[in-house]
Write a structure and sequence with these properties.
The chain is of the alpha+beta class. The chain folds into 2 domains: 1-88, Protein Yojf, Chain: A; 102-213, 3-Layer(aba) Sandwich (Trna Endonuclease, Chain: A, domain 1). 17% of the residues lie in helices and 46% in strands. It has a 7-stranded antiparallel sheet with strand order 4-3-2-1-7-6-5, with no helix packed on it. Strands 8-9-10-11-12-13 form a 6-stranded mixed sheet, sandwiched between helices.
């Protein structure tokens, strides 16, 4: 991973255009090729980014400014004009063991994989932990029509979970063998804000009854 702290301005050129005026920012260049621009707020969320597969070309323009152009396979560009670099370092992090889910969440995934018809009549499981460039989606399924469906499972469903599934869907829908891919956000509890965001993005919400999945109570589920 490469960490760069620099005064820079950023322009995104593609389906939409966006501009970040000059400011001090953190630039992250990861081993998977992704590039993201961060401010000193917003927790882990970048101001702008380019997901892999993408390619970074560094060049020098007038006034000794550096121009980084990150291009994805669709031809969209993230253009970073660097006025001054304050820090530039690279670090080898090695292979990460990945997120270890708590017992209930991991068991929910296992149970839903075993009873995939809970998602709807005619659903079949393609794979658990289907890997994407930014991590594994919990379940990849096909619905009764044979269309791909990505399922993200949480114990408590909040906005971050919806954002996570949105990123998975963006990547999966770039694969012509899978597209179009729809999403299901499944959790024991789903916060109203998360439900609203999911609905706005065309993601279906499913509230899971853990005890019912284990076969100890009613098998009724609430669909939104």
């Amino acid at each position: 991973m490469r960490l760069v702290i620099a005064r820079c301005r950023v322009d995104y050129v593609g389906r939409l255009t966006a501009h970040l005026p000059t400011a001090r920012r953190l630039l992250l260049i990861k081993a998977d090729g992704s590039v993201s621009i961060h401010a000193d707020d917003r927790a882990y969320k970048p101001l702008n980014w380019m997901s892999p597969p993408c390619w970074l070309v560094e060049d020098t323009v007038e006034d000794a400014e550096a121009l980084w152009v990150v291009t994805n396979k669709a031809g969209e560009e993230l253009r970073i004009t660097i006025e001054e670099i304050e820090h530039d370092s690279s670090h080898e992090l090695g292979v990460d063991p990945g997120l270890v889910k708590d017992g209930v969440e991991a068991h929910l995934q296992e149970l839903l994989a075993e009873h995939v018809e809970t998602l709807g009549s005619g659903y079949t499981l393609v794979r658990r932990e289907y890997m994407t460039a930014i991590g594994p989606v919990d379940l990849l399924c096909r619905n009764a029509d044979g269309a791909s469906v990505a399922v993200e499972i949480k114990r408590r469903g909040d906005i971050d979970g919806v954002e996570q599934l949105t990123r998975y869907l963006e990547l999966l829908n770039r694969d012509p063998l899978l597209a179009p891919v729809s999403g299901v956000f499944a959790a024991q509890q789903i916060k109203p804000q998360a439900k609203t965001l999911a609905t706005d993005r065309g993601i279906r919400c499913l509230v899971l009854d853990y005890e019912a999945l284990r076969g100890t109570e009613s098998t009724e589920f609430r669909l939104f």
